[in-house]
Amino acid sequence: MTDRAERLACVLVVAGLDPSGGAGLAADLRALRVSQAWGCPVCAVLTVQSTAGLVSTHPVSSALVVAQADEVLAHQPVRAIKVGALGSVDNVRAVATILSRMHASVPSVVDPVMIATASNAGARLLDASAIEAMRDMVSVATVVTPNANEAATLAGVRVESARDAESAAQQLLRLGAHAVLVKGGHLQGDTACDVLALRSGTVRIEAPRLSTPSFHGGGCTLASLIAGNLAQAHFPFDDQTVLDAVRRAKKRLYEGIVDATKVGDGLLVLPL
Ligand code: PLP
Fold first, then answer.
1. From the CA of 43, how far away is ligand 1's center (Å)?
2. Cα distance between residue 205 and residue 198, in whole Å
3. Predicted TM-score (pTM) of this structure
4. Any ligand 1 atom below 6 A from CB of 41
């Protein structure tokens, strides 16, 4: 066994399969390699999709999601869990149960994905009826990474400014998560301002706004970069460890967005 093999921390990723290669598990695995982690992909939902947009979603049964996850958890030393698109309320409940079983010993990063960046004919990655189950999952997550829309939906408030994002993040923190990162990419302003709510206070993380044409996979990539960074930190974390993991992930995502590439019609992808 080489030293390199010993350095790789396993990260269990429960998310969707996007055949465009831009988002979901494919993006997660690329991001985890960048952060020197080893991704163990559990498929929760198949999608019919290309860079031109999401056509339809086909959730895997929750029994099969749990079987995939439990097999990896039984035989591989998982140092973090990343959760992306789950496709059904049953899958949200099943994954929340896994997180609550593990959350004292293994940190998790939950990206509460609901709607794809480019969705055809209203295809959603998750039904509106799953919102209550999502809130339960937030309560057992270590880090939650909603965009402004998802934060608004989960907190039941409007999120149109960085100040709104701060109060939504505080509300989600009170549900039980250790940290909440509200991504402000779609909010107005000259800079892209993310808000990170921690138990010790709230931090704004600003970056210059890029004029890159629309791309997808950004949310998946950021959450996986954070999970990969946290998989290498000593758990339980202090707030500074989470802040460092988020800052490093944001910096790497920014470099990826600068390099966004066309691999077909429609959306660009991030070739990390
Ligand atoms: N997960 C899957 C399987 C997807 O198909 C998508 C979007 O198309 C997402 C997650 C979310 O992508 P993004 O990172 O662009 O929010």
1. 13
2. 13
3. 0.95
4. no
